[in-house]
Amino acid sequence: MTAITLVRGDITEQPVDAVVNAANSTLLGGGGVDGAIHRKGGPEILAECRALRAGRLGGGLPTGSAVATSAGRLPARWVIHTVGPVWSTKEDRSALLESCYRESLQVARDVGARTVAFPAISTGVYRWPKADGARRAVTTVRAKVAAAGAFDEVRFVVFDQDTHDAYQAVL
Ligand code: AR6
């Protein structure tokens, strides 16, 4: 059984095997969770991201995909970078958001991570509605961990009270 838990706090302080980063396609950093992870994790993470860009991810990491690097000085072993979709009222991009959770867990499983922390992907700079983001995060993770059976804990780590309430309502 995988424990699915909710914590209000800073994802960079979670002592888990893998923390998921809400990155962008360049993999070269940004604000929000991404900025916090690179700031606290140190230059080793960015160096690995640059190496990926110089190699098999020359075109960047596609939206909905995920890739692992080491976690530098974070109290984790891996950072799993994923790129959420920017919210759109014209187009339904929810399959891409769900793909972020599924692909991140697939990568986590591939590296051997048993505890994984997720931020609320796309719900900050990318403006995805918090309640819908929470519902898709929880349902997608539940389905994937039931199928994969490889995790001890998947932890949702949220910053603000609204997001916390949204996750609590779904959980
Ligand atoms: N720990 C946990 N949650 C956090 C933290 C933290 N340290 N910091 C912010 N949040 P965002 P996105 C929450 O904007 O919407 C970057 O520039 C935040 O309150 O980090 O996927 C990237 O480079 C919100 O609820 O990610 C991309 O360009 C959630 O994490 C773009 O932003 C996600 O907010 C990605 O935007």
Automatic annotation (TrEMBL):
CDD domains: Macro_OAADPr_deacetylase (cd02908). Gene3D superfamilies: Leucine Aminopeptidase, subunit E, domain 1. Residues 1-171 form the Macro domain. It comes from the Bacteria. InterPro entries: Macro_dom (IPR002589), Macro_dom-like (IPR043472). Transmembrane segments: none annotated. This is Macro domain-containing protein. The lineage of its organism: Bacteria, Bacillati, Actinomycetota, Actinomycetes, Kitasatosporales.
